[in-house]
Amino acid sequence: MSRFRHVELQYASRLLNHGPTILITSYDAPSQRRNVMAAAWSMPVEFAPPRLAIVVDKSAWTREIIERNGTFGIVVPGVEAASWTYAVGSISGRDEDKFNAYGIPVVQGPELGLPLIEEKCLAWMECRLLPATAAQEQYDTLFG
After folding, report:
1. Residue (of 77, 85, 39, 33) closest to 60 by Cα position
2. pTM of the predicted model, to two decimals?
3. At a CB cut-off of 8 Å and minimum separation 6, what does 135 contact?
4. Which 3-state string (H, E, C) describes 42-86?
5. What is the pLDDT of residues 40-55, one digit of tens each?
């Protein structure tokens, strides 16, 4: 008898997720609103020039902001930020400013002016959205 348990296909990706859940930040210039969401799927895809991929559902307000403004931030939360990570992944930023709602302190990114988080976090980076690909249209994958 095998010691392995059966995993339903819909949950199989959880076996492959290689890294931490990240926070994706964004700023919508036209409305002057900021946003943050938790995302489980992100990965580096190139060394030179450095590129990464994130998966953001087409229906998410974060996706709308990123595509409209062409920028996004990546924040790697530490263990102490686990409650923030859970909280910002539980509601939509369309309804309220999640930074204010959860008391998350913000710093402004030096290059793109994005809202970023340093407290309780391990790293951050500012990204420019790369031109749309078939993956972006079909699979919700954005590249920066």
Report:
1. 39
2. 0.87
3. 53, 141, 143
4. EEEEECCCCEEEEECCCCCHHHHHHHHHCEEEEEEECHHHHHHHH
5. 889 888 888 889 999 9
